[in-house]
Each structure stands twice: as structure tokens, then as C-alpha cells.
Design goal:
With 72 residues, the chain is mainly α. The chain has one domain. 56% of the residues lie in helices and 0% in strands. The chain has four helices and no strands. The N and C termini lie far apart (45 Å). The relative contact order is 0.06.
Length: 72
């Protein structure tokens, strides 16, 4: 499938003819609220991906590996 419209949009951005904010406005105007919510969720940006962020202690990568496999 050719993505000519998508390529055109990126070209307009690269040429400075439109801004990223304008693209976001155009996209969200064309999408339903459910479409925007689905896009956020598909990209792990919805609220559910940030709910427990404050509840989890900070653990460094070495500790995570030790917890996963103590012989690492």
C-alpha cells in the first residue's frame, strides 16, 4: 500500500510549510474522541500506562536482572 498522503504530510513538515502542532490539530479534528483514545492506547500513552508509576519503587537495571535471574 502506498502512503502518498503520509509522505506528503512529512514533506510539508520538513519544508516548514506546516508545524507539528498544526498536524496534531488537523489529525485530532479529523478523528473521533474514540479514535484519539485508541491511538494513545496503541502507543502506550493512555492513562492506564501511567497509573502505577508513583507506586513503584525506583529499581536499577542490575537489581531488576538480579530479581529476574540471581545468577546473572
Amino acid at each position: 500500500m502506498s502512503r502518498e498522503a503520509t509522505k506528503r504530510l512529512y514533506d510539508l513538515l520538513e519544508q516548514g510549510l506546516i508545524t507539528a502542532d498544526e498536524v496534531v490539530d488537523m489529525c485530532t479534528d479529523a478523528m473521533s474522541e474514540d479514535d484519539v483514545a485508541k491511538m494513545l492506547d496503541n502507543n502506550e500513552l493512555s492513562e492506564r500506562f501511567f497509573e502505577d508509576e508513583d507506586d513503584e519503587p525506583d529499581v536499577d537495571e542490575a537489581q531488576e536482572w538480579a530479581d529476574f535471574d540471581p545468577e546473572c
